[in-house]
Amino acid sequence: MNDEQAAPQPLYQRLASQIEKAIASGAMRAGDRLPSVRALSQQHKVSLSTALQTYRWLENRGVVQARPKSGYFVAEQRQLLPEPQLDLRMEGASFVNMDQVLQEFLYIVDDPLAMPRFHAAPSRALLPEAKLQQLTASVNRRHPEYASGYHMTGSAALRQEIARRAVSSGVQLRPDEIVITNGGLEAVYLALRSVAASGDTIVLESPTYFHLLQVNESLGMKVLEIPSHPRTGLSLEALDFATQKPGAVKACILLPNFPNPTGSLMPIEHKRRLVAMLAERGVTIIESDIYGEMHFGEQRPPTLKSFDRDGNVMLCSAFTKTVAPGYRIGWIAPGRHFLKTQALKMRTSVACPMLQQEVLAQFMRDGGYDHHLRRLRAALRSQAQHMAEAVARYFPMGCRLSMPQGGLLMWIELPRHVDSREVFALARLEHIGVAPGAAFSTSRRFDHFIRLQYGDPWTPKMDAAIRRLGQIVARLAERAPVPQDGGAERPTRLAPA
Questions:
Q1: Domain presence at residue 81
Q2: Are residues 425 and 319 part of one domain?
Q3: If you ran DSSP here, which 8-state letter would residue 472 be given?
Q4: How far apart are the C-alpha atoms of 399 and 268, rounded to whole Å?
Q5: Is 468 exposed, middle or buried (0-12, 13-18, 19+ CB in 10 A)?
Q6: Buried/exposed code over 164-183 (b: 16+ C-beta within 10 A; e: otherwise)
Q7: Torsion angle of alpha carbons 320, 325, 329, 335, nearest 10°?
Q8: Model confidence pLDDT, tens digit, residues 174-227
Q9: DSSP state at residue 116
């Protein structure tokens, strides 16, 4: 049996992985010529189209380059910027008060001319709109009753598919343990209301998604920000310190897999330790895994829920980032808080539209979701590489970036005296979508950070936008730093942990 008959996954990805590992090991170096498409085909007993697809896959990821009439060669691997440094300072818990800059930012996120866009979502070019339209028409013809009915816990078919798919993240769920929600944010909102009350203290990663700050603000809850490393995520040492006193923290909202805005990935051992520690201390974990399917590696990273043995982790997710942002379909597996969460859902928004749920269920059942995700991951990985290289090329000295291992977002540290609010204000005038770091914390520690999203295809126009953004940052960086505290310069940050 040849490789094509035996492969459980697309063969071109397996061949690409072998070539990439050989390059990484030093067996092949930049500039080395690779076997021709025909030679690769014969060597691995695959079709010419599979061999060509392998090289195109590697080319999209910047691993190889095609030279006209010469073939494929190992690409020069560009040196990217160092990653942002970890600031281990912590402040006490406080009530949230979102300022005018955040309100202004949220007001203009729908700018249709922005490039890159403000929204943390894939481009329409990367979404299966045509297929979903076909399925919508088909489901609507067969089930016109979906326009006049609903199920309070959500479509049974969709909950079945979610439970089946959860196995890939290490979680065993039954369909009747899942509640369908209006997007991922409602799932988090319901989880918070199920386990905490006004005045309680909630742990968030710092930096964190600004809508999570808004949810806590709307519920009158205090927020305690725990430092998060741009590569490995939440500091377990800081979390350990913050949760030692019984009752000091009611719940933690955590995104261990590629969160907004850093794109970090918590190591597996950290996840295991975190779940055990908080279970022992009676602190509920509200986990949002909205970006978990968007991994760049071969294996999907496990969720915190996969290490939960006590029902202490309330797992939330959605399809709003991966397949259909406009459907606003999310879900929650509340664990031992199921009954209260279900009751709150009924009092909050009753139910979710059945038609969209059934369309998603069929899309998953027919294999369309897996096929789409493979294509999406490949595109996002390539776009992230292009974005990182452009930032390294166009931004001034003193900038740092975190190279994500999945998700949609890139976290960039600017020179300390550059105010991201000014960058945001100047960039928006030229329709360049950048989120100011000030939007991701109640403190001022991220005022010199920005967030970019790489969900749009890389084009000359996108390259020009990042080049122009780099010019804006460079112009602001040329100004002399403003002295702090009566003339003393700001203290240097701690080295990465």
A1: no
A2: no
A3: H
A4: 29
A5: middle
A6: ebbeebbbebebebbbbbbb
A7: 10
A8: 999 999 999 999 999 999 999 999 999 999 999 999 999 999 999 999 999 999
A9: S
- State how far the alpha carbon of 172 is from the alpha carbons of 39, 231, 265, 360, in Å: 45, 28, 22, 21
Residue 155: inside a domain? yes
268 and 332 inside one domain: yes
Q: For the segment 223-263, what is each residue's pLDDT rounded down to a tens digit?
A: 999 999 999 999 999 999 999 999 999 999 999 999 999 99
Strand partners, 409: 453
Query: HSE-up of 235 (CA within 13 Å, CB side)?
Result: 19
Share of the chain above pLDDT 90, in %: 71
Check whether residue 305 and residue 251 sit in a common domain. yes
Range 11-38 burial, b when 16+ CB lie within 10 A, else e? bbbbbbeebbeebeeeebeeeeebbebe
31 Cβ contact list (under 8 Å, min separation 6): 73, 74, 76
What is the model's pTM? 0.81
Do 349 and 397 share a structural domain? no
| Angstrom distance (rounded) from CA 37 to CA 259 | 39
Q: Are 380 and 455 in contact (CB under 8 A)?
A: yes
Per the CB < 8 A criterion, the answer to whether 275 and 244 are in contact is: no
Radius of gyration, alpha carbons of the chain: 23
| Residues 382 and 329 grouped into a single domain | no
End-to-end CA distance of the chain, in Å? Answer: 49
Q: Which domain holds residue 45?
A: 3-74
The per-type count for the chain, helices as H runs and strands as E runs, is 16, 15
Three-state DSSP class for residue 297:
coil
- Are 347 and 377 within one domain? no
Q: Specify the CATH number for the domain of residue 206.
A: 3.40.640.10
- Encode pLDDT of 481-490 as tens digits: 655 544 333 3
Q: Is there a single domain that holds both residue 390 and residue 321?
A: no
Peptide bond into 261 cis (omega under 30): yes
Judgement on whether residues 359 and 468 belong to the same structural domain of the protein: no
* Sign, CA torsion 453/459/465/470: positive
Which CATH number covers residue 39? Answer: 1.10.10.10
Residue ending a domain, choose from 338, 368, 398: 368
